[in-house]
Amino acid sequence: MVGCRARVVVEAPCLFLSVLQEKLLPWRSSLFPGMVVHRFFNRALQRAERFPSFDAMKKARDMILQIAAVIAFSTALAFIVNGFRMEGLPLVMPFPPEYQCPSRMTEGLAIEIEEALAQHGRGQALFVDARSRESFDQGHIEGAISLTYSFLDPVPAAAVASLRRSGDIMVYCNTKHAERSRLMAGELSDAGLKNVSYLVGGFLGWVKAQGSYTGQKPQDYD
Amino acid sequence: MMVRKPLKTLTHPSFMALLRLSLGVVFIAASLDKIQNPENFAANIANYRLMPYQLINLVALTLPWIEVVTGIFLVLGIWIRANAWIASGMLGVFSIAILQALLRDLDISCGCFSTDPADHRMTRWTLYWNILWLSWGISVAFLDQGRHSFVEMFAGRGKRRHP
Fold it and tell me: Is the ipTM of this complex over 0.90?
């Protein structure tokens, strides 16, 4: 029973091709496309007639297995690599794409404390304190200016305009991963300012590295 | 006869091998940026507005890897028919997606070779190229005999060692 059904599956297309071939015979001697199509169907029929149903079914089965193997292998590779990525993509998108932010916020370039110390010593950079005014008044890097960063509001245009006249700009704060200064540096870069970077290690790292400051030294990160 | 020579050239095993290699290289080249930036590729897929959003990330993760594995297997000549059908299937789906995007007048990036939204804005030529590659895939699936493939090379070596 299964064998009969298998034969029907394989032989039905051959029957269809033979009917098409008969319809196309008038084209044979006239048009080039007709000759091409006729030759194609002829060859397809010859091939189909060469193999008995069982062999054709075996080949079809093998091909389907190969397709499944390629797809399974590729999918496994994709999941493995995604698992190793630092920011792997979740397998299921949590909410519709129109509710997502169109792009990530830009982050500034990092600068290490040693290089920042050297630039401070040469008087080549302007240091911008992104913390609150209160924190700035308690203690800050010598020569720095205060420009409090707000997560909700953009940096004021007047402040951006005044910073354009400066050379290298180094933004710092006192959080462990420099979140405030990183984002502020990115926002200033987006606003068109060149050579803006954020201080890795923040105010606490600066003080520990014997950098010059005024006021009280911080005890820990914010 | 006039028709035989060009037809014989077009179906010559070496020409088929060339089509197979070209198709494989196209697929490998198309997958590289998508593998490195799956988030951007997910955004490209979302722009087509074709599938439920829950499936977008899954497709964005797996599709580039299927492309690169298929491309490598086509270049090496491993499981040629199966990989040619996979490639043809994918190109058929891409062609339908591009056609519906063009008909709906969606001003989006194709996402074919780059995930940058500003790259490869979709035009009619995007669709024509896909159809051309689809024709290559179908030709390889039906007519490639595995010439100039690694499998043939190893099989040849085996025969020489054990005649």
Answer: no
